[in-house]
Amino acid sequence: MNGKEGSLTRRHGGGRRSEAPRLGVLLALASAACAGEAGEPAERAEPGSTRDVVACEVARVPLTIEDGTHPYVEPEALLRLGEGLLVAGTPTYTWADGPGGATTRVTTDAHVAARFGLDGAATLVEKPIPGAIGSVRPVALGGERWGLLFDEVVADSLPGRAIPLGLWYGEHDGERWARLERLPEPPEGRPVISGSTELVRAGDDLVWIVPARVGLDSAHQAVEYTRSAGRWRQRVISGAAIEVAALAFDPSSGLWWAQFSEDPDLPGWQQSLRLYRRVGGWELVRRVAVLPEGDKVRDPRVTPTTGGVSVSWRVEGAEDLGAYAVLDIGSDGGGRRLTLDSSVSQIMALRAGDGGPEWLVVHQDESGPSPELRLLEPGRVSVPERRLTTVSPYLGFLAAASHAPSEVLVVGPQYSADPTNQFLRSLILRLSTSCT
Q1: N or C: which end of the chain has fewer CB within 10 A?
Q2: What is the pTM of this model?
Q3: DSSP alpha helix (H) spans, 253-374
Q4: What span, in angstroms and rounded, lies between the C-alpha atoms of 92 and 183?
Q5: Residue-wise over 109-145: b if at least 16 C-beta within 10 A, else e?
């Protein structure tokens, strides 16, 4: 087993993975939280309760390989790919039914992604290298083609403190790995992919920004990688101690970059979430949020919309565990701030069918019996409108995508803690805002 076994604490969009407990411990703890076999109906809320906006569950199915085994792929990213979808991440497992109903693990970290359809039928994608992979950043390239940027790490290294051995980029043509390239190393320090941006397709180029750690504790540089005309180039774009970042491309306004770090232009070592736009170099558009000492930004996202770009994030702090967004930010700044939710463990930024932003949040109320999935959209005032609410069948971090004007697709971990039938597998949940 490598040191990432059982890791379900990966923070999407740049965050940190804490040291994970062993898989058996996770399975033993999960029996109450992760019932929810295929086909079970979603829990309905009582009228007038805090869950008075209810989702219709269109489908709930586990990923299943043709031979009947079930895979788990930690959902670092969920992409539309041709007529299907792709979930990519590490760690990965496959499980097979054995004699007497027992389930046995067949593989560990042999794969890096799964192609699947809405019925759950999945095809696994093997790793492009034999070594251990830390984090991944996939990108759709058109049709069945997709690319994957990833770091090779020392096997058995601890989550969150993996020792990188090199950066790689591969391209998959839908059948096999058709290209594999080594990226140049940062000029100083070690790349921290868990805090990096998405790998973004900007016209014919690919762009990615990653913090590079100098020493043991702090990320001291932000390095921008660009693949143009088949060649990777890099440059240092910031010397601030960047923790997490997000990147997006809009055909009409270009590249946008949000990053959370100590702010050199604010007194007292304050930290801020700042939004930049690339116009030749990177130019500051606005400070999206200034945070008190000790508070951290997690899950940042920049989402191009019809009114500009939207920046969303959540806060981890002593007094604040909420999720927030600023809408309709143009090249000259501006925008409208929303408090999305007061208590969340994850936020996923989506783009609705009408081109506007929406967000799926995992609401975790300390007084509530279990986490809820809530789909939010901008309201006319400083609070959002809730489009759906349902009890989450997951324990761990998720990936989501807008599937249709009234549907959201979610992929995450499902457990069984039955001593004779333990497994950890990927579960697809299709939720609709239309219950008629």
Answers
A1: C
A2: 0.87
A3: none
A4: 24
A5: bebbbbbbeeebebbbbebbbeebbbbbbbbeeeebb
